[in-house]
Amino acid sequence: MTDLESSLATIMEVFHRYTEKEGDKHKLKKSELKDLINEELPALTGQVKDQATMDSLMESLDTDGDSELDFQEFMTFITMVTVCCHDFGEHHEDE
Known about the structure:
By secondary structure, this protein is mainly α. 65% of the residues lie in helices and 4% in strands.
């Protein structure tokens, strides 16, 4: 597989590893999303410390209002994180 194909496969595998913990096996509950962020994106952990931040994040991502994230909603989160990291890297490149 190419680097990009491997990255896509990894994103899908990580999503399903966390959705399988409880409830619907194809959606992330808020607790599963929090575990995923803490374990897979530890650099963001400082940003998602309190319940209010987690509630706000979940509410903004949960476009269908079912209190869970399906894969498309999860990919919105991954896209937002990726864009922020890219922008941060570009900003620091210019310094």
